[in-house]
């Protein structure tokens, strides 16, 4: 099985937080309820950004930096 890609548009938030736990503070800083949320196994970055009215590219870059991928 290959490693997930953070920029995969279908990657669920739960997988992001599992594979890159250093991204969790990004969600917490933005007061997002994604950490521990029951829908995080099916919600994507796009879903969360739509829900919280965030710029998806900027948020994804924050996640990349936190994960050490940028």
Automatic annotation (TrEMBL):
Species annotation: Salibaculum griseiflavum
Xref: NCBIfam families: prismane_assoc (TIGR03980)
Pfam families for this protein: DUF1858
Cross-referenced Gene3D superfamilies: SP0561-like
Protein name: DUF1858 domain-containing protein
DUF1858 domain: residues covered: 8-59
């Amino acid at each position: 099985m290959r490693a997930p890609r953070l920029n995969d548009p279908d990657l669920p938030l739960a997988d992001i937080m599992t594979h890159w736990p250093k991204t969790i503070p990004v969600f917490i800083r933005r007061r997002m309820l994604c950490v521990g949320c029951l829908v995080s196994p099916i919600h994507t970055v796009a879903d969360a950004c739509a829900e919280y009215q965030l710029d998806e590219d900027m948020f994804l870059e924050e996640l990349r930096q936190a994960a050490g991928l940028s």
